[in-house]
Specification:
Layout (H helix, E strand, L loop, with lengths): L1 H13 L11 H51 L4 E3 L6 E3 L11 H12 L2 H13 L15
Antiparallel strand pairs: 1-2
Helix pairs in contact: 3-4
Length: 145
């Protein structure tokens, strides 16, 4: 991708990052010189991860389809467990209930119903929303042109 490398060099020089006089210490100059190779490696890894993720998504779709067939068969024939002769393991049919998500609408509905007041529910939601803890995440994003 020679066009990308030329564009990278152009962007680096526009920002004064290719000019060695802009570096304040020898370590900064070394970091900047290795940055081009590091970014190239990072992009290659990013592409690999994307390809592997796509393959994983496809395999998970197939696995889910197979699982649905097995579950449907076990439910239809009221089978609680299947012993697997080849591996010595078992497939067990389990059923459990999970809680729904807590979003602002569902939380508002539940608070209004519990507190029997729209104003009290609104005040409680405002307090909860203002005092929630935040989490800072840093990441890189590669945009293709």
């Amino acid at each position: 991708m020679p066009g990308v490398e030329v564009e990278f060099e152009k962007q680096m020089s526009l920002r004064g990052l290719n000019d060695e006089s802009s570096a304040t210490a020898g370590e900064s100059t070394t970091d900047l010189q290795g940055l081009k190779e590091i970014i190239r490696t990072w992009r290659e890894m990013n592409n690999e991860v994307s390809e592997l993720s796509a393959m994983l998504r496809e395999k998970k779709k197939r696995q889910k389809a197979l699982e649905e067939v097995i579950l449907r068969t076990m439910k239809k024939n009221t089978i609680g467990a299947l012993d697997l002769t080849g591996s010595g393991g078992r497939i067990i049919y389990r059923r459990h209930t999970t809680k729904g998500t807590l979003n602002l609408k569902s939380l508002s509905d539940m608070l209004t119903k519990h507190l029997k007041s729209d104003k009290a529910a609104e005040d409680a939601l405002k307090y909860i929303n203002e005092n929630r803890q935040g989490k800072v995440r840093e990441s890189l994003l590669y945009e293709k042109e």
